[in-house]
Amino acid sequence: MKSIPVRHIAQTHQDQHDHGRFSIRELSAVLKGEDLVHDLHRHDFYFILAIEQGQGVHEIDFIKYDVHDNAIFILRPGQVHHLWLAANSRGYLLEFDNSFYKAHSPSTEAQWKRATSQNYRQVDQIRFKKLISYLSSSFCEYTFREDGYLPAIKASIELFMIEFARQSPTPAKGASAIPTYTQERYEELLRLLESNITQIKSVAEYAKMANLSIYQLNAITKASVGKTTADLINEQIILEAKRFLLATSNQIKDIAWHLGYEDTSYFIRFFRKQTGYSPEAFRKQLS
């Protein structure tokens, strides 16, 4: 079965080998005066795109965003996207893997999970200047590579994530605010779904993995997004199916098998029920 194209971080400095992979570039150096067009693909690393000034279209897991000034995009490993950027866009492109950066405390880990749960955020100019300053600092450290440059970059990433997490659409105060515990457990479930959906589709199994009862897990998803855990499982299955339908030429039976369905007819009925289209019709419509 053909896989979705996966891009990797090029190792540009030998001393990064034992510290994970990391790269940061100015967009002007990436674009080189020409429009950037990336076809649908996925990464095995975190991808941060900070647009100080620019135009384009960025589609992440089939949600389309117009690129504007003062915009931040964050992709988690495994997400699919395709990107068009205008030649005169300015900002930074930062890439790193799980081995390079890990939160060092429960509080910073919570901020990290909160930040990386958001693919897109448009921020006001003052906030954006603060965010871009952390990336600018990382770029300088990466360029000059003075003693201690790797810890300095990691510290800047942590500050960036803390500030970005503050841009969360989740209200921080008021009666309608979602408790931090609920938000954290919900985000934990999303990561479990991303990692295990092709093998595990049972609410009971996800509850067990999260050390919660089924009732507790459903209460968390209801409070967070107004959906049951089963709804979220179905959405993740459909998302993975869409990824393979549009990014590969695999036969429907092969995609069904990849998702854990031995009965292709059942998978087709399930896909139609969830989307209103057969897998083949969905592929033709959006290809």
From TrEMBL:
The keyword Transcription regulation applies. InterPro entries: AraC-bd, Homeodomain-like_sf, HTH-like, HTH_AraC, Tscrpt_reg_AraC-type_HTH. Residues 187-285 form the HTH araC/xylS-type domain. Keywords: DNA-binding, Transcription, Transcription regulation. It comes from the Bacteria. Pfam families: AraC_binding, HTH_18. This is AraC-like DNA-binding protein/mannose-6-phosphate isomerase-like protein (Cupin superfamily). It comes from Dyadobacter fermentans. The lineage of its organism: Bacteria, Pseudomonadati, Bacteroidota, Cytophagia, Cytophagales.
